[in-house]
């Protein structure tokens, strides 16, 4: 089973975005920095010494599993954490958040849980939840389904943005653990669950809880880890490992002429990923691009600082591993 069999074709999307890149960038003036393709869009505020960073994302078809199991507040927290991590990966600190929630017909209990989840996550990060849009769209969303999207704006002081130019050959790549799937690859997961008649209420061999519980593990926020690392070490780049997995997200933090070499044995891969790949007979390349495989954030530091950075992470109970190195190359990720 491949990702395309579940109705998602990441390569086609990437090609399409590449073809349209020029149209996007035709709207950019002198105050837009970095172009299309980063973890956040960057805009210089002419009257302020710094940059605004804007990011948008959703939680995809994870909402369907949350709806089935009555865990709507959890995916709302996922959404905030996802956008926060994208903002951090650009080098900024989050300021405010807006949401878009669309139903076929508004479900009051679900909507209340979503709002409470958004509010709780925003308050925990000191982010203002300014509002957003709540829509009812009969015939677009059916059978109790809904959609959930977030928009976050952050601010980067001078020198705080990651411009990729500071990443050098020989730099160490640290991997911070994910809590599971986070918010990506659920269309493939749901296809596997359906075709293999898997029971969300059952605990399968190797999993430490029921399948539904493991699938809905909360998308981690790495705000504390990033703040502490940047305060103490020379963090040269960050990649949030979301849709596209390590092969597509890590190169977004690298300059031209560099690639990442990762060792698959450097970190313990959670049993969930092997279970899903085995049940769905998913080819290795598809599996690596659909899911994060236990790495939620990749942080690039000088090799000389890697051990100290990992020691700081361990002392704070955050966890992490030295998973690879930056090397000369034509981009991409090489696994060994």
Overview of the structural elements:
The chain is of the alpha+beta class. It has 2 domains: 31-156, PurM-like, N-terminal domain (60s Ribosomal Protein L30, Chain: A), CATH 3.30.1330; 172-335, Alpha-Beta Complex (Phosphoribosyl-aminoimidazole Synthetase, Chain A, domain 2), CATH 3.90.650. It is 35% helix and 23% strand. The protein is built from 11 helices and 12 strands. The strands form 2 sheets. The chain has a 6-stranded mixed sheet, covered by helices on one side. A 6-stranded mixed sheet has the order 8-10-7-11-9-12. Strand 1 (32-33) and strand 2 (41-44) form a beta hairpin. The protein starts with 9 loop residues before the first helix and ends with a strand. The model has no long low-confidence stretch (mean pLDDT 91).
- Poorly predicted regions are none
Distance between the termini: 24 Å
Q: How many H/I helical runs?
A: 11
- Portion in helices: 25-40%
Shape: globular
Instruction: Quote the average pLDDT.
Output: 91
Radius of gyration: 20 Å
CATH superfamily of the largest domain: PurM-like C-terminal domain
CATH fold assignment of the largest domain: Phosphoribosyl-aminoimidazole Synthetase, Chain A, domain 2
Structural class by helix and strand composition: alpha+beta
User: Element order, helices and strands?
Assistant: HEEEHHEHEEEHHHEHEHHEHEE
CATH class category of the largest domain = Alpha Beta
Can you tell me the CATH architecture of the largest domain? Alpha-Beta Complex
Count of discrete domains? 2
């Amino acid at each position: 089973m491949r990702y395309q069999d579940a109705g998602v074709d990441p390569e086609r999307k990437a090609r399409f975005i590449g073809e349209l890149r020029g149209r996007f960038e035709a709207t950019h003036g002198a105050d837009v920095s970095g172009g299309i393709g980063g973890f956040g869009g960057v805009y210089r505020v002419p009257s302020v010494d710094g940059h605004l960073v804007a990011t948008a994302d959703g939680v995809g078809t994870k909402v369907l599993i949350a709806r089935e199991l009555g865990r709507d507040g959890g995916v709302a927290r996922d959404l905030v954490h996802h956008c926060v991590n994208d903002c951090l990966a650009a080098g900024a600190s989050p300021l405010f958040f807006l949401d878009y929630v669309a139903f076929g017909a508004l479900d009051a209990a679900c909507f209340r849980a979503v709002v409470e989840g958004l509010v709780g996550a925003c308050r925990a990060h000191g982010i203002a939840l300014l509002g957003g849009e709540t829509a009812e769209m009969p015939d677009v969303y059916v059978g109790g389904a809904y959609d959930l999207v977030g928009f976050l704006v952050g601010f980067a002081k001078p020198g705080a943005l990651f411009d990729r130019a500071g990443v050098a050959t020989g730099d160490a790549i640290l991997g911070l653990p994910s809590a599971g799937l986070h918010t990506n690859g659920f269309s493939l997961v749901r296809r596997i669950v359906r075709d293999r008649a898997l029971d969300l209420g059952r605990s399968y061999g190797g999993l430490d809880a029921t399948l539904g519980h493991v699938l809905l593990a909360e998308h981690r926020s790495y705000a504390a880890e990033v703040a502490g690392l940047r305060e103490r070490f020379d963090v040269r780049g960050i990649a949030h490992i979301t849709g596209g997995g390590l092969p597509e997200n890590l190169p977004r933090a690298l300059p031209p002429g560099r690639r990442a070499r990762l060792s698959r044995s450097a970190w313990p891969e959670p049993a969930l990923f092997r279970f899903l790949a085995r049940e769905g007979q998913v080819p290795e390349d598809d599996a690596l691009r659909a899911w994060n495989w236990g790495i939620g954030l990749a942080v690039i530091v000088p090799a000389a600082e890697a051990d100290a950075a990992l020691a700081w992470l361990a002392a704070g109970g955050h966890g992490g591993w030295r998973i690879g190195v930056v090397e000369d190359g034509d981009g991409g990720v090489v696994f060994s």
